[in-house]
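User: Show me a protein chain along with its predicted structure.
Assistant: Here is one chain, sequence first, then structure tokens.
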Amino acid sequence: MRNPHGFPIWYELLTPDPDAARGFYEAVIGWSVGAPMSSALDYRLLDTGQGQVGGMMRLVPEMEAGGARPGWLFYIGVDDVDATVARIQALGGSVHVAPQTMEGVGRFALVADPQGIPFYVMRGAMDEASHAWQANAPGKCGWNELTTPDQAGALAFYAEVFGWSYPDRMSMGEMGDYVFVEAGGETVGAIMQRPADAPPAAWQFYFRAADIDAAAAAVVASGGTVDMGPMDVPGDERIIVASDPHGAVFGVVAGSRAAA
């Protein structure tokens, strides 16, 4: 049975150097990165040892000319791509890549919310569920976090398009509330207001590793940068936010020493 409408189903890295990215993420997260799918399409699957979490695609000059940059995006599963895209546009969002079908893969579109933050919507060709998001599975995405310049607007938009609900929130003092997102009956992430001095608004994804200190050390040893952490967060977890050698930002989450 496929995932419910509005559930995250795939994670994708756009990078100018897939060979270098392969070595980096294998060292930091522990993924096994496959070979290019074809000579025409340098797309490589990211395997956790317990199933795939996503893929990485080569950033080519034509993409850069169109404004693409190294970074992570995710795919949100929907019942009907065309109807969802129409709804996104009606609510003030935009379309970067119009709905299209890839044989054997499914129908998808690259869109942005009303604040200009991009993501994909997709209906896969197969009926089986994706397990790219699993809160506690090694190598899988364990948290999806949106930092936005308009938290109230984002909450309304994603609820309307994807049926998300917000069962709980945590006060962060002057930064406002950290609002938890429920999709398909699971808490899959949170939405927060972007502070004035913070990095650009974006979706950020935290992938689970065995040890946060080892992951942080691997980031630095492999040519990346630890931008924040390691730090403790609620739930007996520790996180870092890092940039890979090409500037793509991502998060890593692991259990705390106390919880281990």
